[in-house]
Amino acid sequence: MQYLVIAYDYDNALDKRMEARPEHVKATQALMKEGKIISACALIEDEKMVGSSVVTNFASEEEFEAWLSNEPYVKGKVWDMENIQIVEVKVMPQA
């Protein structure tokens, strides 16, 4: 199942984001190699990272939920889970 995740950070979470970022990047890159994350971007406002967008490709909703609950930005209290959008999508195949 493919999902678009748009997650905004808690207010004043930049220090927490930077602390969790190495683990987040490492985990995201590993999942990209497996094809489970299609793309990942930082959301930028006023030249500062304020959130993320991630397009995922998990086999099931349960696998997606397991990833989300263990995502370093979730565990590190960076993403404001009250301010997150999760939308099922269908990514166009590359030509």
Automatic annotation (TrEMBL):
Protein name per the record: YCII-related domain-containing protein
Query: What Pfam families does the entry give?
Result: YCII (PF03795)
- Superkingdom of this protein's organism: Bacteria
Q: Where is the YCII-related domain?
A: 1-79
Q: Which family does it belong to?
A: Belongs to the YciI family.
